[in-house]
Amino acid sequence: MISTTLLIATTFTLISGAALAQDAAAAKILASKSACMACHAVDKKLVGPAFKDVAAKHAGQADALEKVSARIKSGGSGMYGPVPMPAQAHLKDDELKLLAGWILAGAPDK
Question: Model-level pTM?
Fold first, then answer.
């Protein structure tokens, strides 16, 4: 019984890790295609804030995914400085959530 439970838990962990790696890769590609990387970097401020700074600002907020998704969609300025972020209104809701989730996770490579 313990062996079976351990096997199931291990399998779930491996599958979850693989899914997260695929999501991170897809998010990174989407960020590049959407020109996010022209103004943002993972760990340093460029024109816009570092993704890790965005993640830190929203840490512990229950509605962080919705807030960041909405901000990506609408664009705007003032939250991190005067330079406006262009709206990404063409992105679908699932793409917005993928990007926002990736950013809130610290924009991991894997």
Answer: 0.79
